[in-house]
Design brief:
Blueprint lengths: L1 E14 L6 E15 L4 H7 L3 H20 L17 H11 L3 H14 L3 H17 L3 H13 L5 H22 L3
Helix pairs in contact: 3-4, 4-5, 5-6, 6-7
Length: 181
């Protein structure tokens, strides 16, 4: 019976090219444990992961962990939106969302915000408008609609969504800065 433990450690430090200020720093380790059984010591040694392979695998894994910090990364997120039988406009807008027609759905939701007297329903429609704007990349407008849903119409779910949208906007601004936009 044999055992080999190998730890790969990697670190990155990114400096500002003009003043030398540290912009980002990352250090982490990846440990590999390998066990093997065989009749001879030579066979055990051959069955254990080599230190070289452990370092290669660890370096790859650590690079994957660091890459999203410095490079744009696509992330899938799940968002809920309001549908329902009443008012019928929310149900109608759902069919637009299913066909990825966010502008069409947004027009319906805007009509609900303007015309429906029920504050709770207005809050749901405003929340949905925030989502439609987020999907279309209009984060400032999404935040406005979400705040309106929370503050003017009392939608409690919109409070946490505002924070999510603000974080997205901050990340987008940082990305634009990094990409020289």
């Amino acid at each position: 019976m044999g055992h080999r433990k190998t730890t790969a450690t990697a670190g990155w430090r990114i400096y500002h090219n003009k003043d030398g200020q540290i912009l980002d720093e990352f250090k982490n380790s990846q440990t590999f444990d390998s066990d093997a059984e065989a009749k001879t010591n030579e066979d055990v040694r051959l069955r254990l992961i080599t230190q070289r392979q452990a370092v290669i695998d660890g370096g790859y894994t650590l690079g994957e962990m660091y890459a999203p910090r410095i490079s744009p990364t696509w992330v899938w997120v799940h968002r809920n939106y309001y549908t329902g039988k009443k008012p019928h406009e929310l149900k109608k807008a759902k069919s637009y969302v299913i066909t990825n027609d966010w502008k069409g759905a947004a027009e319906i939701w805007q009509g609900v915000v303007i015309n429906n007297p029920d504050l709770k329903i207005k809050g749901k429609a405003a929340y949905n408008l925030a989502l439609a704007n987020e999907v279309q990349g209009n984060l400032d407008s999404a935040i406005e609609w979400c705040r309106k849903s929370a503050n003017e119409f009392g939608n409690k779910k919109a409070r946490s969504y505002v924070k999510i949208l603000e974080d997205r906007l901050a990340n987008q601004k940082r990305l634009d800065s990094q990409m020289g936009k």
